[in-house]
Structure formats: structure tokens, C-alpha cells
Amino acid sequence: MILLANSEAYPGIEASARRLQAGEEGLRALVEGIKLVELDPRVRTVGYGGWPNVLGEMELDASVMDGDSLRTGAVGALKGYIHPIEVAYKVMTDLNHEILVGEGAAIFANEINAVAGDNLIEDSKQVWWEKLKQAMTPEQQAAFPNVPLAPLSNNATDPERVRDTTVFLSSDINNKITAATSTSGWAWKYPGRLGDSPIIGAGSYADSRYGACACTHTGEMSIRCATAHAVVLYMKMGMKLDDAVYEAIQDLDYLKDGYTEGVTIHAIDCHGNHKVVSLNCPGNITYWLWQTGMDKPEERQAEVIMTK
């Protein structure tokens, strides 16, 4: 068994590891761990305590994928609910759809009695407005929100740009490989923006025959390259895990225009190997790993490739 997650997973990684160790089905083990991340206000990019969009609204994204059946569930721009990962899971189990967004996602969340709540804490609200004011003239401040939003979403400074979506990958006791993600997305994003997290094949992908992959940081890049699916496809084509990840890094590095800041790839294969590589993400990039035989998850350093 193996469990791989990014650095923001610390509130829930041990819970997921314990569940896997006890023989629990992999995807439920991931969902329960991510729910603890969603509840923790120290993690400013996921769930409660995350950063709002440019209008000061919390919009949450999440996804799950079962590598045995290739079934998926995802929600995007979900408002008013504490655990988007649980709603995404129920999309997979209860609907003949794969993704719900916006108002429809909220209607479904209410229908399944998902935990409702306001994810915007006072500190996030204050930081949002202070940062936003810096990008507006006094006249715009007085007229807000009836001002052009695109310049504000492009120019306002994300207070924690090195922080990311939470991503969990696992292979359970039955060798089922699964993936799950949750995020509040970019701080000050344009309303309705979806990153890669709820887009299966971009932000995450799992196939028990080959492996799984999930991405963090600049979701726009992972969407353009279908990065998560690409890593798994490269393994299907016969590449070893390391080579598959490096090939996907080359795909990302090919992007020359648009917003191209950086991406960190987290991947596992069906043989119990893992690889985490960060492209053009400065700073200390770490991840969490647990495998059969380990007492508890360990935080490790990712490989960093800088081409800029």
C-alpha cells in the first residue's frame, strides 16, 4: 500500500494512512483525510479558511477518481458547503454524471444533506479587501463591485502563492489506485474560474492498471497539457514512472504564453513507486509519503527543476 499527498495534507494525512492500514477502501480513506484538511483554517487554500474570489465569495472545487472503474466525481465553484470532497464523492456514487458546477452543485449538496456553512473567515475577508484596495482607485473602491473584475483578478496579489490544492493518491490493500483533490482555488480569482482540480485528466487521474497522478500550483498549465492523464498514459505506453513524469514536465515546459508560473506533479505507479517533481516552483517544495511498513507518514523533499 502507498499514500502520497502534497504538503498541505498535514491535517489529514495520518488519518488516511491509518484507514488504509486498517484495510479500508482507498477512496474513502482519502476522502476522510481530505475532510480534515478542509476543516483546518491553517490551510489557506482548501475549504474553511481559504481565500475568496475577487468578489469576496468562497468557491470550492474537488474531485475523486476510482482507478478500478474509472468512475469520477467532481464539483466546481461550489458555494456554501464545508466539504466539497464529500459532494464530489456523492456525484460519483449517486449520479449518472461526472461533474456538477455552481448552482447545480449546491442544489445537489443540499439534496444529499451535505454540511452547510460559510467558509470565509474574518481574517481572509480582511486580507482580501486590503489586497483588493491596492489594485483599485478610490473611485473604483466606492463603486465596487460594479467595476471591471478582470483587471482585479489578474493584478491583485495572492497572499500565499506557494500554497496549493490538496491532493491525495493511494493504492489500497486490494491494489485499487485512487485519487482525490480539494481546493478553494486562486485567491481573488474571477468568479466561476475552475482550475485543474475538478477537471479529471488535468488535475488528477487514476487507473489501477498503471498508476495515478495529481498536480498542484498553476492549474491553467495542467489543463492545457492534460498533465495528470498524460503521466498515466505515458506509463501505459511503457515508460517507467520517473520517465513518464519527466515527459510530462517537458510538455509543461513547452508552454510559452498565457500564465505559466509552475506546476508540481505527484505520481504513483502500480508497483508501489512514487515520484514528485516541481517545475519552476521556487522555495521549499515538500510532500507526504506513507507506505506499508512505515509507522507514520513522512514529509520529504520534492525534486525541483527550474527552467526560468
Automatic annotation (TrEMBL):
- Site note Cleavage applies to D164, T165
What is any Pfam family matched here?
Asparaginase_2
UniProt cross-references to Gene3D superfamilies, sorted A to Z: (Glycosyl)asparaginase (3.60.20.30)
Q: For binding substrate, which residues are annotated in this chain's numbering?
A: R193, L194, G195, D196, T216, H217, T218, G219
Q: Which residues form a coiled coil?
A: none
**This protein is called what?**
Asparaginase
Q: Which domain of life is it from?
A: Bacteria
GO molecular-function terms, A-Z = hydrolase activity, acting on carbon-nitrogen (but not peptide) bonds, in linear amides
Task: Give an example GO cellular component term for this record.
Answer: cytoplasm
Which residues are the active-site ones? Answer: T165
Q: What organism is listed for this UniProt entry?
A: Photobacterium carnosum
